């Protein structure tokens, strides 16, 4: 009952935010005036904020910015003992530093380390926290560029990456995360730069904590669908996620931007119904997924859960099974990857569903920005097949889906499955790869599958049992994260460039309407079926083998 | 009528189903057998690689053959045979589709063979010529053709008039007149002059005659993939890659799964080395979209073929596809929407005169009027009032006054009675000249008819007006329904006419077109097409005159009438051999049907995979993880029979769908939403359900074979 109320109130809050936040983001990305702070930043960057960019230039901007960010983060970690505010931490190992740098720049926030024993204040705030903002803003910028591809006609420019990046950070992410951080502090999350301090735990023991700016980090980590926590146990930590209502707030933050961006999309293409259609697809998939996970967890399959009556292993008693499942679904459906419970402890089918959530390509609603562009590309593939069935060259939003478009969309769709499957296969085929498993049998296979799924889809959460802080996994997972992030971005931008050049085809009754429930149902079906067909063999040997006993 | 008429003149017209909708040729089982050698020839990897999906199947089949030779078993060989059959069936689909065109090409070739030409030494000297082979003719050569001879090449009649039998091209046995000058000067090589003699200037380049192009088209020799076909191929290639990766990467997972369950013995599907090669290939072949991959090119060829059967030659597949996308249809009023001539539709008498009296006078005065309008008055009087048509010779004392452009009247003086019929102003003047005073009533009637877009003709007896004949354009039967259909398909119809806007509006309203262009010049037409295209719309039109050529060239689908000039035929991208402008509507439907067939079979193909997974995954892994047997929804007898059933189903479904691919899926004009719902229901849902039933059925049969348990 409490669980249902939790979900209902969350849905209501998201529905209420849809219009105002979506409209606000629409104004942010279409406005023509620059604030004074922004002007200063543009001058420092040496860019002309009014200069329009073609897709190639836009993509180069994304790649160059990300490359510089990776190098900066890598350097910061390797040299942290020479810099101030290191809290006495040692320099980070090269493979781990690479992995972490890529992880935060790609909005994955896969953490092969424990934050409190590896990273000092400087790395956390000047490095990782900054990336929490800008990597999210990059995702949003790319989504907006793709939407511009649909909205614009007969042009080869898609806007200005630097402007989109700066505005997304300053006008959207900063203000919301500021408010959220204050709320979290009010809820009991800590926000301090002090020295180590000792705390008496509920069990009566004494524990020494590394102090941290946890509340502000938590706010942006969820809002920007990053997921990289200050503490190893992430949002299960009482200083990150103290109470049931902060848990609610954090889930809300995870979902709010990704669920509101379709409104921005609808506004930009001049047809709000299109936004409703896309958000409906996201919501339907999310609710189906949540339903399956909750069913699997609450029906408590498996020996131990049946013995004790519910699947409580790996959960915080503060949250319980249902709210943990809710958080787990939200964090895997978005590309966040923060956790408030250990997904490794989920029932086989529940954990399988979490893997499936990520395998969907993080589209329901997905990461900030990346969810929208992923979903729009799935919608295009759907339109292509459906459009043929109505006897016309397929069109989406007045743009023809021809050979070039379908080529880019297909390549986009190919990237993550190939990374996940090849990554998993290589890991399972090698001794070093298999060594990371903490369980044997199908569950161990699920752990590896989860890791490569999470990295390739830029989620960042982990089946906690897996010990991936090895050079092999740090390197391969790092590659998965980098390719899984930037190949799709480049393809999405190329697609945007190709769409923007087209003259629009006016809609008629012969055109496939892409705002009706019929179409929504088709996109849901195509998404689920394509992903299921692609990954069924792997899932059969992991979660399904374990769950169907 | 069909080109095949040459072979059997009694052949029925292009097949249509009971609703007159586009259907397709029937599939003759004998044709399958005839095409078999071609299908086997197509196994050549050098040509098959162009179809990536089937190429992968062939590679898989070859690979399993090697495996089966190395480690023979009944199961292995059964799979090998069915994999090869899958490729053969796919080739068969293409071969059958091509075979139908080849038969037509053969008859066309017969028309071309052994033609000689009498090439004039000079254009003015009609007595001196060389006899050369038709294939040696150059552009610009002038030839003389007399009755009984075959015209050696495409050209323009520069002198003379002749009746020509064009049945070799059009299948229409009634001869047509070809004469120099005007819009009927074009002649086609391979047709036969029946009477008289004409001088023809050759306009084709050697080997590029209309018949050559027809042969190439129906044979599909230079068939190029159309834009949507290319796009679909890309999607299919991507799906193939995904399933290849999914299957290949399964192997390390399978090896691991086997190794942690050491108690489970090796099975045919799974050993310590992983999934066996035969099973792995079977899984790949079942998952990649073989159904659509096998039928894709057959669908395209059959689409062109359906046009040929309707006597339309599309110069490229691209044009056929564009026809499906057309959103604006430009239709000439005369001949397309209306019957062509104005016809009497009503007799409106003045006060004191009965309709019958007026009808009788109108008929009498029109007997000497040989214009189509005059004839229509006689016919209408007979039809509506039962007045017998009298021949001018029948009335001995009659003095006939024929219609001339000067008098603009016709009539008769009979036994002192003078009756006239003609243009309102002319007849009124005649009445006044004879001392009559036409009342205002007549003026109102005349204005009323003009205002409604009709043409009023006044009928008068010496000194008094009897009434007015209402002449109007008669819209062909069923046009309004066709245009309503078009509207439901989202196509806007625009009527093009030289009439004034008033008349044009009246006809447009009656016919139910969406818009009209009145007082249209060729320039206006071109401008309209450009305007529509700028708005992103695709435009289709028909035309026959030389002045239509620029508009035909500009339009996305330009259908030239075969009776038209060679300039028009050059400019358009389709030629209608029947010269029936209404056929444009059918062409659009065929274009749509082509795309729908591709989309429907793609959906079907992908939806099939679900059932195949449920057959093969438990067959591979249930030995290691017995729980996975829960996925064996179909309760298939054994792992071997499950895998073989899936492979057999995958092959047989290709054969089962060949008729559908050739005929095209059923298409009824309706809105996109309705079409999608129906096709999703049939091919999406059907695609999920059918293989479950099919695989189970096959399993029931083959479980008794040796080696299946």
Structure keywords:
heterodimer; A: 549 residues; mainly alpha; two-stranded antiparallel ribbon; 19 helices; 4 strands; 66% helix; 2% strand; B: 709 residues; alpha+beta; 7-stranded mixed β-sheet; 6-stranded antiparallel β-sheet; 23 helices; 49% helix; 17% strand; disordered N terminus
Descriptive account of the structure:
The complex is a heterodimer of chains A (549) and B (709). Chain A has 549 residues and is mainly α. Chain A has one domain (2-548). Helices cover 66% and strands 2% of the residues of chain A. Chain A contains 19 helices and 4 strands. Chain A has helices at residues 2-30, 36-45, 55-78, 94-105, 115-118, 121-151, 161-187, 214-223, 244-268, 272-298, 303-308, 320-333, 348-359, 370-389, 403-429, 431-434, 441-456, 471-501, 517-547; strands at 197-200, 206-209, 395-396, 399-400. In chain A, the strands form 2 sheets. Chain A has a two-stranded antiparallel ribbon with strand order 1-2. In chain A, strands 3-4 form a two-stranded antiparallel sheet. The mean pLDDT of chain A is 87. By secondary structure, chain B is an alpha+beta fold. Chain B is 49% helix and 17% strand. Chain B contains 23 helices and 24 strands. In chain B, a hairpin with a 2-residue loop joins β10 and β11. The radius of gyration of chain B is 34 Å and the shape is elongated. Mean pLDDT of chain B is 84; it is low at 1-25. Classes of the chains: A mainly alpha (549), B alpha+beta (709).
